[in-house]
Design brief:
Length: 214
């Protein structure tokens, strides 16, 4: 666990559409671009080992892509190198952040000055969702997985802690980048679960997503 005093003012960021990391979640990544290989090497030299996952967004009518205002920082907790020099890493979600500004510099990857205020709950204990009805939720999820031709470990779903279940599904289900951003910005686990249910129900009514499972 980290506390607020451990969080740096500036972190490297990895803009990746459709990739969602949530506090206390785990995100595996396959790193092969030279600039991000350099980012991982620099990250390993720091005490905090934090990387900010953030989604780019297109500015309407311009084709320009900017970073979303909010991302989530993960601590590099898993690392292996392939024979051809690629990295397989795991980020463990620590806290969301708000981008203050991009920081100019000589690194080939992007860095941002960030603000952690407002996300203190991310550093705390596992969240609870008092209104969660697991049986109803799993029934809805079963219909969604069947419609999307997805498979899962249903026994694990039945036994998983509520936060782990909701956050894992938010990260893994094939929603659009905009929908993933809404799940990230949900202020509480209850709100995230309600958003997740809305997205699943929309998909079952004929909505679609261009994203693929990560």
């Amino acid at each position: 666990m980290m506390n607020a005093a451990d969080l740096p003012d500036t972190i490297p960021v990895f803009p990746l559409p459709g990739a969602l990391l949530l506090p206390r979640g785990r995100l595996p990544l396959h790193i092969f671009e030279p600039r991000y290989l350099a980012m991982i090497e620099d990250c390993l030299k720091t005490k905090h080992r934090l990387i900010g996952m953030i989604q780019p967004r297109e500015v309407p009518g311009t084709g320009e892509k900017r970073l979303n205002a909010i991302g989530c920082a993960g601590r590099l907790t898993g690392f292996s190198e392939t024979e051809d020099g690629r990295y397989m890493i795991t980020l463990s979600g620590i806290s969301r952040f708000r981008v203050k500004e991009e920081v100019a510099g000589f690194t080939p990857y992007r860095r941002c000055a960030v603000d952690w205020a407002g996300f203190q709950r991310d550093l705390g204990a596992t969240e609870e969702d008092a209104g969660f009805r697991r049986a109803e939720f799993l029934d809805l999820l079963g219909r969604y997985f069947s419609a999307m031709n997805l498979s899962t470990d249903w026994s694990g779903m039945k036994e998983a802690e509520t936060e782990l279940l909701i956050n894992s599904l938010s990260m893994l289900c094939p929603f659009s980048p905009e929908d993933k951003q809404a799940l990230l910005e949900a202020p509480s686990l209850t709100t995230r679960r309600e958003t997740l249910v809305t997205l699943i129900e929309f998909a079952l009514r004929g909505g679609s997503s261009d994203e693929v499972m990560q």
